[in-house]
Design goal:
The complex is a heterodimer of chains A (274) and B (438). Chain A has ten helices and no strands. With 274 residues, chain A is mainly α. In chain A, 41% of the residues are buried. Chain B is of the alpha/beta class and 438 residues long. In chain B, 57% of the residues lie in helices and 12% in strands. In chain B, the strands form two sheets. Chain B has a six-stranded parallel sheet with strand order 7-6-5-8-9-10. In chain B, strands 2-3-1-4 form a four-stranded antiparallel sheet, with helices on both faces. In chain B, strand 2 and strand 3 form a beta hairpin. Classes of the chains: A mainly alpha (274), B alpha/beta (438).
Chain lengths: 274, 438
């Protein structure tokens, strides 16, 4: 099983790259029939990625969320899956290109940094762990999607403002729709991330004997979540919207990514299974 | 293979007509046929020339009469003369104004017309509805036959495919519609938007009507002359306000259409800066259709404000027209494909007729023999006996039908087979009578 899983983990970024090229070709082209089928081009990718995650689980003999790279891989899968669902119910079916690019980058990092020999750890056998990681990854995915739509909002806003009515203008959903999708995604992200962090605290109590372990990743993610929550409340109270809300969403996402990258280089965290 | 390569002059359809390609509006006006005239033409021509089918298409850009039937096609020039006499004009006999197209070329022309490839503005949506109306009128008067019915059905498929598989019908080709498309790109669903119309003239009204069709939630009209604003508000089911209240109402407005005949800016940058702040930078879309302009161009720099004047909208229209033209080859290919389908269908007609006659003949024999011999079977076996007879008949027919279908691609062999089948089996009524005598 391990050799198969290793092969699939290397092939997966290549499949993502093909999906990026196909999506980009359709996005930049003028073929209505293919455009409407864009979400379904992502579907086999979702299937293959799902199989990859399962194979990883069998190969490492753990729940397939045991390492940072596994969590990243799940993040990539969650992003394209959520976009697929969003576009199924949407008139515009062209934003999947951007999600596929983001997932391609994340999965490529993940595929080339996998560990294949995992130490036993009491946290990994606790069922709360699967709940915690799944919810947290979903939360991050929704926040990533929010930032993606915020970026597209800024792009489209700029194009309309400066009378640049080319492919970007043609293919993207309306400005208002991008704003609503971004805001809804961040709401979902804050809720699921909050629940994921809560599950993490409950697991910590069971395994480590305390709800509040002194751990950099726990502290930073709580701060980030709290920052997002406060940001949402303030945005609601002061009715922030439009371009500045989009910049805020992207800034929040930037801080999230930066913080988590920093944490990767910190050794003293119990999240560091591999 | 192109339809032009196939000799299909035998297709018994022809069209005679004038259009914007051949005549200016003054001539086209004279050629227009109202409902009553169309009905008269269809009834009279069908009797005079024994047309199998006829239908009339009369719009502001074309008047065309489609006729079906060998006699009608043979005397098409006489039909033109009759039409001139009917209209008391010299239009349809004037070869510089009128075109006569026959056979598969007529089918090709019809498909181009119905899919708006032949329209003055390529991709315009009205023509399909106009053709549909014309066909339904003829159908209601029982003036359509299988050739026209098939042409119409294929035509609707062409129209659908051109619309769904190409960008020929996409993109606004009028300034007002370009404004609507931009508004939709900003706001999405326009049903939740409020429009302010500054000016009550024709330009403002035309632009506003496009938005009203999109069922905007509220429309407010203002004008220097309040009476005109009120009149237009009644027409558009909106509300009128005095011009002095414009700045106040801007806070509640999402889309502003300005088309006054003033010579000063009505909306200055400082006004919109205040408005944008009060709206919490919610998008506001300003459409300035006036010359000289009503809106200070610097307004476009304000965050949350989108400003488009007449030039910018005309640029969009020009770009869209070019993009539509770029889709023409794709659309023509779809048309060509369906012309070939029509021709293929047309060629199956003799085979279909023969198969129908053969099946009918075999069924008649089966029924006769079954009636004659059914008393030899007990009642309980009758159903099985009938089933057996039907099954035998189908088996015997099967090879005839398969052979005819196989030779369908070769007209000469098909004709030979049809003639042979006709020699062996008495398929028509006179042959049957002779058969009975013998």
């Amino acid at each position: 099983m391990k050799p198969i899983s290793q092969i699939v983990s290397i092939i997966l970024p290549a499949i993502y790259l093909i999906a990026v090229i196909v999506n980009a070709y359709i996005f930049l082209g003028r073929n209505k029939k293919l455009e409407n089928k864009l979400p379904f081009i992502v579907l086999p990718l979702i299937g293959i990625h799902g199989i990859h995650i399962l194979l990883r689980g069998f190969a490492t003999n753990t729940i397939p969320l045991a390492t940072k790279m596994d969590a990243l891989s799940l993040l990539a899968l969650a992003i394209i899956s959520l976009i697929f669902i969003i576009e199924l119910y949407s008139e515009n079916k062209t934003t999947s290109l951007f999600a596929v690019i983001l997932s391609f980058i994340i999965q490529t990092i993940s595929s080339f940094a996998y560990s294949w020999e995992l130490a036993d750890h009491p946290l990994l056998v606790n069922p709360w762990y699967a709940i915690h990681v799944t919810l947290t990854v979903l939360g991050y995915s929704a926040i990533s999607i929010s930032a993606l739509y915020a970026l597209l909002y800024i792009l489209l806003n700029h194009h309309i403002k400066h009378h640049r009515l080319g492919r970007i203008y043609d293919k993207l959903p309306p400005l208002r729709n991008l704003e609503v999708l971004s805001i809804r995604s961040v709401h979902i992200g804050v809720i699921t991330l909050g629940l994921g962090i809560l599950a993490g605290h409950l697991q910590a109590k069971e395994v480590l004997g305390t709800y509040w372990p002194i751990d950099p990743k726990v502290i930073y993610n709580n701060i980030i979540w709290f920052g997002y929550f406060i940001g949402l409340v303030i945005a609601q109270v002061f009715k922030w919207r439009g371009r500045w809300m989009a910049y805020l969403a992207m800034m929040g996402f930037g801080i999230l990514i930066f913080t988590n990258i920093m944490i990767i280089f910190i050794e003293s965290t119990f999240h560091q299974f591999q | 293979m192109k339809s032009k390569d196939i000799n299909t002059e035998n297709i018994p359809i022809a069209v005679v007509g004038i259009s914007h390609h051949t005549a200016d509006v003054a001539i086209r006006e004279k050629a227009v046929l109202n409902d009553k005239q169309q009905k008269t033409i269809m009834n009279r021509l069908s009797k005079l020339y024994r047309t199998r089918g006829i239908f009339v298409l009369s719009t502001c850009n074309r008047t065309e009469i489609y006729v079906c039937g060998r006699k009608a096609i043979k005397y098409i020039e006489d039909i033109c003369a009759w039409l001139d006499e009917f209209k008391k004009e010299t239009i349809f006999t004037n070869k510089e104004l009128t075109y006569i197209i026959k056979g598969s070329e007529a089918i090709h022309h019809f498909f181009r017309v119905i899919s708006s490839l032949d329209s003055q503005i390529i991709g315009e949506p009205q023509i399909t509805g106009q053709v549909k109306e014309a066909y339904e009128k003829a159908h209601h008067l029982e003036q359509t036959d299988i050739f026209i019915n098939k042409m119409y059905n294929f035509g609707m498929q062409v129209e659908k495919q051109v619309r769904s598989k190409t960008y020929l019908t996409d993109g606004a080709v009028s300034v007002s519609f370009a404004a609507v498309e931009l508004a939709r790109k900003i706001f999405g669903d326009l049903r939740k938007t409020t429009i302010l119309l500054i000016g009550a003239g024709d330009t403002a009204e035309l632009a506003a009507q496009h938005f009203v069709k999109r069922r905007v939630s509220r429309i407010i009209i203002t004008n220097r002359t309040f009476r005109n604003a009120r009149q237009l508000a009644e027409k558009l089911n909106g509300e009128a306000i005095a011009l002095e209240k414009v700045t106040q109402i801007l806070e509640e407005t999402d889309i502003v259409i300005s088309a006054t005949s003033g010579d000063k800016y009505l909306l200055e940058k400082r006004d919109l800066e205040i408005v944008a702040k009060k709206r919490d930078f919610k998008p506001i879309f300003l459409i300035d259709l006036a010359i000289p302009r009503d809106v200070d161009p610097e307004v476009g720099e304000i965050d949350g404000v989108f400003l488009y004047n007449l030039d910018a909208l005309e640029d969009i229209v020009r770009k869209n027209i070019q993009q539509r033209k770029a889709e023409l080859p794709k659309a023509e290919k779809i048309v060509e494909g369906h012309v070939l389908n029509y021709i293929k269908w047309y060629k199956t007609l003799p085979m279909v007729k023969t198969i129908t006659q053969l099946s009918k003949y075999f069924e008649e024999i089966r029924e006769q023999e079954f009636e004659r011999l059914k008393n030899r079977f007990p009642d309980s076996y009758l159903a099985d006996a009938e089933y057996l007879s039907k099954s035998l008949m189908k088996k015997l027919l099967h090879h005839h039908i398969m052979t005819l279908r196989r030779t369908n691609g070769d007209p000469l062999r098909l004709k030979q087979h049809i003639d042979l089948v006709g020699e062996i089996y008495p398929l028509n009524d006179s042959q049957k009578k002779n058969d009975k005598k013998n």
